[in-house]
Structures are given as C-alpha cells and as structure tokens.
C-alpha cells in the first residue's frame, strides 16, 4: 500500500517453490457435473530462494472481512527463507571500480510493463499541466503535497483542478503504489482495513492516510504518455488511432507486426531519451525555471530530484555484477565531475547531468530484447514432438537479479504446458500468439501480459501486480491478481479474484466476468507470499476506462446456470483444499441444485432395477453421450494433451 503515516516498509524475501513434472495418466477432468481423476505431478525437489515483493490490494466499495486473513498471515509468517545461491547484485557502490567510462545506465522495464496503463492518458496529464502540478505541490508542502503526496491532496488536484473523476484519480494513485516495495504483511493488513469498512466514507477516511513520493509520482504520470496516440506520428506510419489496432486472425506462425510499447525496451529507452529534458525540468525547483517552465544554463537539480530519477533509471559500472539505483551512481565520489554534482551546494548542474545521462544510457541488459536474444530456453514437463516445435519459450532468470526476471512464451499451439518452479517466481511473464493451448503457470508471478492469443485457457498463480490481455479471442483466464486490465478482446471469460476493479479499455466485445473457481495445493501459500487476500474482491465491479464510450453493455457477469468449478488436473504438495474465500452464494446455490439433480438421477437409475445387460447397455449409452460432449465442447483435445508423450520426447521442467 502507499506509505501510511508512521509506517515503514521492509525488505521483501522470495519463496521456495516446488518444481513439478507431469507423469503419464489420462485425466477425465471436465467442466460440468462430471468429475475425473487427476494425474500426478511428481515432486522434483525444492529450490532454495527468497520471498517476492507484494502488492497492496485495495479497491472501491467495502466488503465483509474473512478469517482467511489470519490464515494468510500465518502462512506468510511461518515460511522458511533461504538465500539465493547467486552472487548478490546490490552492495555498496563505493567498493566498485568507478571508472566513468565504464558506467552503464538503462531505463527500468517495470515502470512501463506494470505502471503505464495500456490506454491513452487523460489530456490533463500533458507536460503543461504536470509542470503546474510540480510548482503547486511545492507551495503546499505543509498540506500533504510535498515531499510526499497524500491521497486527499492528490484528489483535490485531480478532481478540482484537472477535472478528473474521483475513480480515475484513485486508479492512477493505486497503480503507482503497485510499483512500490511493500511487505506481504503490509498488503494483507491494508486489505483487512478496507474490508472492515462499512461505508464509502470509512474507505475514504482510510485512504486519506496514504501517501506516495511526490516527485516519483510526477514521473509516473508523465510515463503514461508512452501510449498516447499521436496523429502526427500516424502520418509517418508509427501508429493509427484505432480501437482495435491488431490483426483479426493471425496465424500462429506469423511474425508479429505490431509493437507492444509496454514490453518493448527500445520504446522505453527512446521515450526517456526523447523526453529527458522534460523529465528533468519536471523535477526542478520553481526558482530554477523561467516563467515558461524551462531550465536555464545555471539551473541546478536537487539531490531529491536525482533520487526520484531512480524510479526510471538504474545502472552498473565496468566489471561489476551489481545493479545500482541511478542516484547511487550519480552521487558516487569518482563520478561527481561527470554527473555535475557539487559538494558545496549539494546539487547537480542541470546540463552536466543531462549530458552524462545521454552519454551513458544504453539498452536494458535484462529487458525483453536481451531475453529473446540470449535468454535460456526453458524445458517443460510436457513437450510433444511436431505440434510444439514452433513454440518459443525463453527466460533470463539465470542471469537477472530479483525484480528483473522475465519469461517470454510465444506460438504455443495445440498443447498443454504446465510449470511450477523457481524460474517463474517473481517473474514478468509475456504470453504471445498462442492458439488452442492450455497453459498452467502455478507459481507466484510478478506480472502477466497475454497478447494475441486465441481459443486458449490460462491458469495462473497469484499475480502480484498487473494481469493484462490485449488482442485475444475466445480466451479463458483463471487467476488471483492485484489488477486485471483488458483491451481489444473478443469473447473472453475471466474467472478472477482481485482487490481492485477490473479495467476495461477500448476495443472489447462480449467480455464475461465470473468468480474465481479453482484451487491447487499451494495456492493460499502463494497468495500469502504475494500479499493477496480473499477480500475485498471486486471481480464483479469492472470499470470502463476508454474515451469513446463508457457503455457497460460491453461486459456481462456469468449467469449462475452456466457456472461450473474448474479442476486443475495436477497434484502437488500443499494445504489448500478448497477455493480461497469460497464462492458467491448465488453460484454456490447453482452448484448445489445441479448436484441435487445428479443425486435424483442416480436414485432413479438405482430404483429402476435394471438387469445386468440393461445396466451394461445403459453404461454404453452414457459413455457415448459423454464422449460426444467432450468432442463438441473441445475438452477432448485438452484431455488428449495431458497424456505424457513417449520417453524420447519428454523433458523435465526446469
């Protein structure tokens, strides 16, 4: 959660996770009244690790509390933590060689992957208005505006001066907080506080105690320009303002033609380089600017402003294996001459600092491009010859430090893939152009982006920050996540548990929301590690965020008569034996009524006193109808894909 008065944040640790292998067994898992056996997912052993960062689950209207809080907190506080076997990345910067020619700086990926919403920002987030906000907050330092910006002050600025709706103002405030390091206990505590509120006024009273770093928040608001649609750039072919800017029926082997700026590290670097002067000027004290809000040759940048830049930039030095926040490098004694820092004034020369930044900004060594180019190819527990040879799955977890882990999956076709291992823990995951696939990622994840997938099902472990879908058709997603957002989707179904309102951006058609309806043995353990609780849960209260329309007819809530629980067809160690938080009463009632019908039918058959031959004939008829149903619903393909291939084509999950 954002900083609370008198609160303090702690360093987070990441969990030990179980590596699984799928063993041979046909499963008769179906969605409906029929139950089936689950094939074993053999335990391969535990890998030592540390727990991951967590996210603050908060949302809109209050809902009832739950005893699950105490269970999650207990799980979290009784975990055993182990150190990484890798060398540490964060140590004392002054112990390393500070040869200025060896300094490498790059733009961090997470502020764009998680922080930049995949929708054009409000027009009032332009540089002109942000400069006015920057000057205004400094004049209101005693009123909760600077150096930390309280929710009540931001609400006043956003609603009173920028004319934004309060829900939109809270959205950006909360999204920024999802980038801030918090312990799982702090996140769970905030969820409990909000769940115990009985009115909107009580919720607002609790929010008024929250604050964020003012200068970093200004940078965050400016980064929303990443997805701004520009008619000028449209004329030269960079983009075109279409609500559904994607290929309607991409082939699984087709090369991608559209760029996802949130995951494109070249776009991140270009954005910062193109707007570096504006970003620096946004952080300047008012007296360092002209009347038109521009810098002068003698402008000085405060130490606090340089610390704020660490929100976007980090780096390292030659022959070092450590990653440092930007301000630690800029303030290092051997680099003062280059970075423009003065020990006397405790400030930086604006032009020296800008020149130093431009001279040393380079590509992100842990970004998507590096992952695709030199990342480690993953081996999965299921891999069938022929149908999955085209699949491309890579990760950088063997070289990347915590918070930089990345997994990219592309072109998985007609296959079931399942994984739960340390490779996935805390990773940013991108799933791209998958078709007729069933993918299970049963580990705590940092963020997930699913793009241009069709006719597929994704079952995810708890997602600490953002789960985003773009350009998908006929996709089902089952997940516990801090935030869900969707754009340009058609016919997709979302079974989710989320403490924030789902975000519906532009270009969506026939979206269905439904309650989270599955579990696996380590689910509550993973939720505790990520700070995600069972309440509040706003799966049924989406927020339409698009300029062209606020029409709520774009989505529906799944009718109870269409609801079935989902059985994850693997076994693993753990304590979770039921759906966390249970089901809403109307859906639980629908399941009970269906179960009652089954019992009545079974009783009718039993009382019919059929002969042995009649029972055999009746069994054949039922099985034929069952197989016919499997084929018509597409479940036959999923069951077939769960059969372990021949030993020669099997690879262990790694």
TrEMBL record:
GO BP annotations, alphabetical order: maintenance of centrosome location; maintenance of Golgi location
Organism whose genome encodes this protein: Trichechus manatus latirostris
Localization of this protein: Cytoplasm, Cytoskeleton, Microtubule organizing center, Centrosome; Cytoplasm, Cytoskeleton, Spindle pole
Protein task: Plays a role in the regulation of centrosome and Golgi apparatus positioning, with consequences on cell shape and cell migration.
A GO cellular component annotation in the UniProt record: spindle pole centrosome
Family: Belongs to the TBCC family.
Boundaries of every C-CAP/cofactor C-like domain copy: 387-532
Identification of the protein by name: TBCC domain-containing protein 1
InterPro entries xref list: C-CAP_CF_C-like, CAP/MinC_C, CAP_C_sf, CARP_motif, TBCC1, Tubulin-bd_cofactor_C_dom
Family annotation (PROSITE patterns): C_CAP_COFACTOR_C (PS51329)
Superkingdom: Eukaryota
Gene: TBCCD1
Keyword annotations of the record: Cytoplasm, Cytoskeleton
One Pfam entry name: TBCC
